[in-house]
Amino acid sequence: FPVTRVVDGDTFWVDDGSPKGKKIRLIGVDAPETRKSSRKEVGYYGEEAKHFLSEMLSGESVRLEYDADRTDRYGRVLAYVYLQDGTFVNAELLRKGFAMVMTVPPNVRYAEKFVQLQQQARAKKRGMWKK
After folding, report:
1. C-alpha to C-alpha distances, 9 to 3, 47, 68, nearest whole angstrom
2. Is the dihedral of CA 78, 83, 84, 88 positive or negative?
3. Per-residue confidence in pLDDT tens, the chain, 131 aa
4. pLDDT value of residue 41
5. Are strands 77-83 and 62-65 parallel, antiparallel or unpaired?
6. The pLDDT value given to residue 35
7. Of 13, 38, 124, 129, which is least surrounded by CB within 10 A?
8. CA nearest to 79, candidates 57, 55, 96
9. In degrees, to the nearest 5, what angle opens at C-alpha 54 toward C-alphas 111 and 16?
10. Is the overall model pTM greater than 0.85, yes or no?
11. DSSP readout, 38-64?
12. Measured between alpha carbons, how far is 50 from 31 in angstroms, rounded to an integer?
């Protein structure tokens, strides 16, 4: 699916042929917030995470892989996302320190791998772990 726009560091839109497109939420990762809402504050490293995802997905088409749940309570499509060159987007965000692990059962296919990637990013002080 061609990517049409990035919302923040873990959510973006694709053109699925429908008038509005599909909103995709990356499974297993949680990037800091970029906007203040009634429930959340703007998070440390939020803008950097959004910029990183925007750069990674700009002009790209992606392949979606699903887990047990196809959508979340907000109607977003839950997916593991791959670029055409095989880059695993969810994992790359963790590896480079632009997101944290967020495991929500039953969508746990890559949970152990994601925890390892986050631990490595923290140990190497990458991205949000520089402090």
Report:
1. 14, 8, 22
2. negative
3. 999 999 999 999 999 999 999 999 999 999 988 887 767 777 889 999 999 999 999 999 999 999 999 999 999 999 999 999 999 999 999 999 999 999 999 999 999 999 999 999 999 999 999 97
4. 73
5. antiparallel
6. 80
7. 38
8. 57
9. 80
10. yes
11. SS-PPPTTHHHHHHHHHHHHTT-BEEE
12. 8
Residues with catalytic roles: 25, 33, 76
CA 72 to chain centre: 14
Residue recorded with tokens 């990674």: 56
- Distance, in Å, from the CA atom of 34 to the CA atom of 44, rounded to the nearest integer, reads 9
DSSP 108: -
Strand, helix or coil at 80?
A: strand
